Amino acid sequence: MRIEKCEDKCNECMLCVRDCVTGVWRNVGGKAQPVDVDLCNRCSHCIAVCPCNAIIHDGLKKEEISGVNRKNLSPDVYRDIIISRRSIRQFKKEPVPREIIERILDVARYAPTASNDQNVGYIAVTDKDLIEKVARNIFGRLSRLYDITKKGIGKLFVNHTGLFKNRYLRVMNYVQEQNAQNGRDFILHDAPVLILIHAPRGKPFASDNCNIAATTIINYAHALGLGTCFIGLMTIVLKFSEKLRKELGVPKGRRVYAVLVMGYPAYRYANTVSRKKADVQWL
Ligand SMILES: Cc1cc2nc3c(=O)[nH]c(=O)nc-3n(C[C@H](O)[C@H](O)[C@H](O)COP(=O)(O)O)c2cc1C
Q: How does residue 164 score in pLDDT terms, banded at 50, 70 and 90?
């Protein structure tokens, strides 16, 4: 990797040295110099911080880097995006154009990853038949588990352990009824898009990287007029079902750490919501 400085452009402001956390850029006799380029994790900070465009870095796509438009950074707009986003579980039949999904996944590239690993991958499913098949598969598993708790030793177990009070168990009767009566999909909410977010299995911060990307997606999608919902249930099922992982093309050595559904909301929320106060200890 080649990292160099254009001496004629550099004003020796040392921002690259102050900002570089990997130890590539250092102060050598009062001048900013790239000392050990192999340490670079390609975070782009040196280029992003340099006010003189004095840095040449052949490990980065320079054409992707542009000036920051501070006028667009509105805290009020951002706050409204965060607090007005809801988990959407009722979607219009309308499919989401591929360009829109691409645009959303493109923004998620800018979410932070530990050590700038950029190791998050996506599986975007728009095949409605496949989405429905997956939903039926997960619902079937859940239903079978629930049925076990209704009789014999299963019933004894949930009564003895107090599991019978569990919210999810208590609602299962209704979920089964609704599914039988009108085919309501309580698993993937009849969504037109399913997104699996994966990273190297067991790699430190793999789950964090995926879930930060997922959070970026849900907020940007909301700003674009789309609705999303995390499907933690499917993340769990994928952990245990190799068959489902294969069917959905999850690459070997990688694990799905977040699942989202996405589509155009069937209706809008007129109001924001109530939440617990932030639990903060001030020291
Ligand atoms: C990690 C995670 C897993 C979730 N799993 C599911 C799920 O399997 N099915 C579902 O309908 N909603 C799921 N949700 C959505 C939550 O129920 C929802 O975020 C919460 O009730 C708050 O509502 P809001 O997102 O509209 O603010 C999940 C949310 C998170 C953060």
A: confident
Pocket of ligand 1 contains residue 173 by CB under 6 Å:
no
pLDDT tens digits, one per residue of 48-99: 999 999 999 999 998 999 999 999 999 999 999 999 999 999 999 999 999 9
Per-residue pLDDT, 89: 98
CA of 233 to the centre of ligand 1 (A): 10
CA atoms of 43 and 112, how far apart (whole Å): 10
229 C-alpha vs ligand 1 centroid, how far in Å? 6
The ligand 1 atom nearest the CA atom of 88: 26
Of 3.40.109.10, 2.40.10.340, 3.30.70.20, 3.40.1190.20, which CATH number belongs to 3-64? Answer: 3.30.70.20
CATH class of the domain comprising 77-126+192-263 = alpha beta
CA of 120 to the centre of ligand 1 (A): 21
pTM for the model stands at 0.95
Other beta carbons within 10 angstroms of residue 259's beta carbon come to 26
* Atom 30 of ligand 1, nearest CA residue: 230
Nearest-angstrom CA–CA distance, 125 and 131: 7
**Cβ of 205 below 6 Å from ligand 1:** no
Would you say the CB of residue 232 lies under 6 angstroms from ligand 1? yes
